[in-house]
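Exercise 7 asks you to align residues with C-alpha cells for two separate proteins.
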Amino acid sequence: MAHISDLIAQDIEAYLKQHEHKSLLRFITCGSVDDGKSTLIGRLLYESKMLFEDQLAALEADSKKVGTQGGDLDFALLVDGLAAEREQGITIDVAYRFFSTDRRKFIVADTPGHEQYTRNMVTGASTADLAIILVDARHGVQTQTRRHSYLVSLIGIKRVVVAINKMDLVGFSKDVYDRIEKEYRAFAAQIGLTDILCIPMSALRGDNITDKSDNTAWYAGPTLMEHLETVQIEDDLQARPFRLPVQWVNRPNLDFRGFSGQIASGTVRPGDRVRVQPSGRDTTVERIVLSTQDMQEAVAGQSVTVTFADEIDCSRGDVIVAADAPALTGDSFDATLVWMSDEAMATGRSYLMKCGTRTVGTTVNAIEYRVNVNTLERTAAQALALNEIGRVSLLTDRLIAFDPYESVRDTGSFILIDRLTNNTVGAGLLHAARSRPRDLSWTRTDTSRAARAALKQQSPLLLWAGAGIDANKLEQKLMSIGRHTITLPAATADLPRVAGLLLDAGLIVVIDAESAQPAALASALPAAERIELAVDAAAPQASLTGERLSLPSAAADETVEQVVEVLRRAGRVG
C-alpha cells in the first residue's frame, strides 16, 4: 500500500524531484449531516502518514477532551478546527487539506452537510476533479445526498465515489449496500452522473480505506485509496480553443507591454493568430513570457504574459482567444443560478457580476423555473431563497466574452455580488446568449403606466405610512429588495396629483404621515393601487384586508419587516 516514501530519509533531493512530477487530484467530500466526511479525511491523513508527532499528540489530547469516540482517536478533529464545529460535531466551513502518496498528490476539500451551508459546498466543488459522496449505511440516500449530487452534476464533476460509510453499524450487510447502491444509481441516472464507484467502508475503523477489509469479503472493487491513486483525471482542456482572461496589463518599462493571466483552456505559441474579445480586434502573439524566460508554448493552467505584434487595445477583463475559434459575446444570457444569501434574490435588482476577470453590472431579468433537487421537478418562482437553484435570464450593462460552462468552466462561470454589502450572493453557470433589440428607433415602444412598471419589474403602489410606521425605514427596506420607490411627506402640495404622476412612472410611493389616509386621496386613486398601513395594538398579527394593512405594536424595524413580508406574500411588491 502506498505510504510516505522511503526516499525522504535516503535521498531528499530525489524525493523532491519525484514529488514535483506527481499528478495532482483535487477532490471533495460531501453528503448529508454526520455521514463521516471529516472522519474520512482524517483517516486518509493518518493512513498516508502525513501527520507529525505533535499533531498526533494534539489529536490524542483533543480526542479525550472533545472527541466523540469515547477516548479513541476522533479523526474528524484533524479537519474540524473551528470551536463551533467541535462543540456541535459538524462541519461549517470548507476545510482544505493536502496529502500525498508515492503515486499522487491530493488536495481535498471537506464541505459541510447542513443545508444552510450548501453555498460552502459549491465553493469547495468549483475546482474539484472528483467527488466523494458519503452515505450513512443506517439512513441511506438523504435529501442532502441528492442536493449535493445534483450540484456535483451541475458543476460538471464527472467522477463520483459513493462511500457507503458506517457499514460496521449495520453488520457489514451486503443487502444494505446493494439497496443503497441501487437507489443512488437510479437517482444519478436522472441527473446525468454515470462514472460512479460505490465502496462499502467504515471511515472510523479503516475498513476499505487503504486496505481491503475482511468484513466485506463480498466486495470485489478497489479500496478508496487505490481508486484515488489510479483514477484517470487527465482533462482535455489543452485540446480546447485557447482562452486567456487578462488579469493585468504588464508594463514595467517603455519597451515592454504584455498581458498577464492564467490560461483557462487551449495552447498558445508565438506566431498564433489571436483575437481580443469582446472588442473583436485580431493580432498575432509575438512573445510568451514566464518570469524572465521566453517560452515556445504555453498550455492551460499556466500563468503567463503574452505580447502582441500590433499595438491594439487590451485591458483587464478582456479575453484573448484563438482567432479561428473565438468565444461568444453577449449582454443577455440563459444561466443556472445557485442563490447563496439569506436575503432572497430579487428580479430587477442591480447586482455586480464577475465572470472571469471582468466585473459588470447585471440584473436578473426573470426566473424561468426553480429546481426541486429532491424530485428534480421544475416549478415557477418569483424569487430564489437561500440555497435554491433556478434557471434565470440575466442582463448585463455591457458586452462580455464567455463560453458555455459545459465547454470551458473558467469563462462560463460567474458570481453575483451585492452592490451595497460587497457580499457574494450567488454563483452561476452561463449556458447561452439571448438576443435583445439593439436599435429601439425601429421598435414601437409602449409608454403606458403598465409598461413603465413592467420595466421596473414591479406594480405601482401607494403605501400610506400612518402613525407607528417609519416611512424612511420602509423605503430603505423596499430598495434593499430591488424595488423602485420614493417617499413623500403627507403635506406635499396637491398630493393626489403628484402621487398619481409617480404611480404613472411605475414607482412604489411611500407617504410619510402621522394620521389616517384622507378621503381626498382615496377618491383620487384606484383602490387596487393604494394600501393604508396602520398599527393596531389589538391586532394579533399583521394582516391585509382590502386596502388596509393592520399591524401589531412592535419595534420600528420589526414593523417594517412585517409590512414587506405581508405585501410580498400578497404579491403586491414582488
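Second protein for Exercise 7:
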Amino acid sequence: MSTKERLYLFDTTLRDGAQTQGVDFSVDDKIRIAETLDALGIDYVEGGWPGANPTDSAFFSEKRGLKKATMTAFGMTKRVGRSADNDPGLAALFDAESDAVCLVAKTWDHQVELALGCSLDENLEAIEDSVRAITKHDREAMIDCEHFFDGYKANPDYAIACAKTALAAGARWVVLCDTNGGSLPHEVEAITRAVAEHVPGDNLGIHTHNDTENAVANTLAAINGGVRQIQGTLNGLGERCGNANMVSLLPTLLLKPDYADRFETGVPVENLKQLTHVSRLLDEILNRSPNRHQPYVGASAFAHKGGLHVSAVQKDPATYEHVPPEAVGNKRRILVSDQAGRSNVLAQLEAAGIEVDAQDPRIKRLVDEVKEREFLGYAYDGAEASFELLARRALGEVPHYFEVESFRVLVERRFNAMGELVTVSEATVKVAVDGATIMSAGEGNGPVNALDQALRKDLGKYSSWLEDLRLADFKVRILTSGTEAVTRVMIESVDGDGARWSTVGVSPNIVDASFQALMDSITYKLLRDGAPAAL
C-alpha cells in the first residue's frame, strides 16, 4: 500500500485556456482535447461554462464518455436576491452533462461590495446556498475562491470565512485563486498554511496565474503549504500572461524527488512519454507554432551546441540534462550532428499498435524519411494518421486501393440567379480503380470540400466504405514567407463510429497540400476498416 499523499490534477484548458487572446476552440476541438487529457490520466477536466456561449452549451449537451477524468462544468454562485432553485445560471449547470460543478465565488471583501453590490453576509449566504444546490443535484461541488490571496491580505477573517462556508455546505474542494497573478511564492505558501488550519489540505486546491512568471512556482509553494488539488492548463494557456503550465507541473511532480517521493498522482510515470506529443497536439489544434524553449517539451529543451559542452553531454547526459528527454517524450538534439530520432519513431510506432523489431533496417530508413519530411515542413505530432500510413508504407503494410491520375480545381466568383455575389468551387478528379478509369466532378464550399466531394462521388467498389466519412476541421499554416511560401494543411476527419483522425499535407500550393491530407484521410479510413486491396 502506498504511503504517498495523493495530488489531484485539474485541467482548465477548455475553460480558462479558452480565454487566451487568439484562442477559439470548436466543439470538436474540445472533445479531442478532453479525450487526450483523459488518456493522459488527468483527474478533472473543466469543459467550459454551459449557458455562457453556444460552444460550451453544445459541448455539455451530451456525455463525453471519459474513462477516468471527472467532467466538470464551470459557473458562478447564485445571484443575491434569488433562490438557488430559481437562478438561471445554476439551472444551466444542472442541465449540463457533467459529474462535477466548479463555481467561482468572491472572497475579497472589496470585490464583494464593489462588483456584487451586496453585503458580506449576503455573499456568504450565496456561497452556502449554491454549494448545497450542487450537492442536491448529485454533483461534486467545488468553489473557486476568486482573488483569494488579495482578499486574505485585505481581510483574512472574511476570506477564511468564505472558504469555511463552502466546506461546511458540502464542497469537496475549496480552491484558492491568485486571480491577478500578483502573489509571490513565499506569500502563497504562508497564506496556504494559514488557511490549512481551517480547511483540511485534502479539500484545498490552488489556481494560479502567471503575471509575475511565478504560476508554476506558486503552485509548488501551495503544495508545500498543504493544498492537494492542482489546477493548470496545457502549455500555460490563459488570459493575460496565462495560467500555471500543467505541462511543466506534471513532470516536476512525477520526476523530481522532492515531490515524487512524497506524492502520487493519477498520471502513471510512463504516460509522461506522451507529454511532448500532447503539448504539440494542442498547438496544432490551435494552428500555432510550438514554443521551442518551453521546459521539458520544447524543441530546444534538450538541444546542445558544439564544442566541449557537446562532448560532455555525449559522455554523461545527466551533466547538462536535469531529466532524460525520453522520459517526457522529447529527444536530445546535438545541433552540429542530430543523432536523435529512432526512439521517438519507435514510441510512435508502439502508440499506433505497430509491432516491429527495433533493429529492423527499415526503421532507419523510416527515421531518415521522417527527418527529411519534418525538414520540409511536415508535422506528425498532430497528424497521427499520416504518420501511421507513412510507417506502414515503409513496412509494406498499406494495400494499394486506387490511384489518382489527375485533378483540377476551379474557383469562380459570380452573381447567382438571385443577384447575390457568390464564390463557387468546382473540382474534377480522375482515378484508376481495378484497372478502370473513373472521372468525377464535385461542387463544394471551397476547393477542399469540392475535391472531397469529387473524389468520393465515385471510387468504384470503395464508395460504400466512405459513405460515413466527413471532414470535421481544416487548418492552414504558412511555414515560410515570400512568393514561394510553403503551406502546411491539417485535416481532421470523423466517421460514423465516432473515430477521429488527423492528416497532414505540405506544398507551396495550398490546394496540393490539401489534396495530400485528403488522400491520407481516405486511405486511412479504408485501411482502418479493412477494405480489400485493388485487383
